[in-house]
């Protein structure tokens, strides 16, 4: 929070001098203005300031000043003073949103006391506003990186600490741990959030076009380059570039990337002209780049340049206490996506979720939550039927899905068909027809 200051507006030069001098002797910082427009140009929503304005001024009266200030921030304290005060004018001032109204003549001590109270109100407003913003950021980040494990809390705190730091970041983690989620959070919580976030998967780009994708090219730079093209790094200027699976980048392209990182300039293919870059680089890898650099698969100088700040995302198996919470969070997202209710989760199913190792990490857990909400997964023992229902053409997949739903519903009702067709919203005949068509057999008499 900046230092408190008073903006004093009055067309009377002698009064401006006397009041500002008196307030300064009381220990306040005062900026004086004869022109209200000049004063208003110095007002912003984040100012720790109080405005003291005369009402009767030739260019703009105090009520217009009050209105303009309230358009900027309705809770900046405005104190109106006048030598033409009366009760109706005072009432109008307070109804219009003035913090207080003082009639001339007044002592500087009286004005200073009002200003002190106004500063206290302004301080509380700014602190509460900042607190709400901070809580909003934390809540939003907690929704992106769900969990209560100490390791995930550390990641969240590191993101908030590094978001506005002008430093490149290396994100480490196994496949599916959420490396791009972390990269996007670093961008979205930074001052670059309104500028581009450009994500590239280095493993997905063919070797013969990755250089052009990154740096761009001029017309005629190579066969097929009929016109110039802006590269991803240039397009992201002012924002953030996320380079996923950077270990897959060819060594010759790594050399050019190193130069871009060190000099913050690029040269398009086929050009001799350097282009300045204002970009934050975030790279991600699932391998040990230190070992790769020792074995010759990754440039050591690029590794050391990237590894200034690194964030390591824990594998899901290393924070098992978060699995139930994260599963329910992902199931709620799936409910909204598929417009299906979330089936009940038994203690046994929850135990299966916790005991499984999740080699695909959060990505695998998300897919499992999607299948669970769709009725295609009820535990790892049903994995075979799930696989069968997700292969083949559309008709066979739909039939497999329909069969699995009916079979599970019959099983949940201990083979009672009446309870089954009522819970599925089918008629008795409708259920029997589907069972016949899908080849569903019921053990026992299936009495209804």
Using brief descriptors, characterize the structure shown:
single chain, 448 residues, alpha/beta, Rossmann fold, five-stranded parallel β-sheet, 19 helices, 12 strands, extended
N- to C-terminal distance: 73 Å
Q: Name the CATH architecture of the largest domain.
A: 3-Layer(aba) Sandwich
CATH superfamily annotation of the largest domain:
P-loop containing nucleotide triphosphate hydrolases
The parts where pLDDT drops under 50 for at least 5 residues are 382-390
Shape: extended
Order of strands, main sheet, comes to 2-1-3-4-5
Number of β-strand runs: 12
How many domain modules?
Answer: 3
Structure write-up:
It is a single chain. With 448 residues, this protein is α/β, with parallel strands linked by helices. The chain is 49% helix and 12% strand. The strands form three sheets. It has a five-stranded parallel sheet, sandwiched between helices. The protein has a five-stranded parallel sheet with strand order 7-8-11-6-12. Strands 9-10 form a two-stranded antiparallel sheet. α17 packs across α18. The termini are far apart.
Short description:
The chain has 448 residues and is an alpha/beta fold.
Give the secondary structure arrangement, pairings included.
Layout (H helix, E strand, L loop, with lengths): L4 E5 L3 H13 L3 E5 L2 H5 L8 E6 L7 H11 L5 E5 L4 H9 L4 E4 L4 H37 L5 H13 L6 E4 L6 H10 L8 E5 L8 H6 L16 H4 L4 E5 L6 H13 L1 E3 L6 E3 L3 E6 L3 H7 L4 H7 L3 E3 L10 H16 L8 H9 L5 H14 L8 H7 L4 H19 L4 H7 L4 H11 L10
Helix pairs in contact: 13-15, 16-17, 17-18
